[in-house]
Amino acid sequence: MAIAVLPASVRPALAARLPGWLEPRWWDGPDSLVALAPAAEIGWFDRHDKPPVLRAVEQARGLRWLNTSYAGVDWLPLAELERRGVALTCGTGLTTGQVAEFALLAMLAVAKDYRAVVRAQDRHEWLDAAPGTRDLAGSRALVLGHGAIGQAIDRALTGFGVEVVAVSSRRPRNWRSLIGTFDWIVLAVPGTPATRGLIGPADLAGMKPEAVLVNFARADCVEQDALVAALRERRIAAAVLDLTDPEPLPPGHPLWAFDNAHVTMHLSGIPTPASQARAAERFLRNCARFRAGEPLEAQVDLGRGY
Question: Which helix (H) or strand (E) holds 114?
Answer without folding.
Answer: helix 114-122
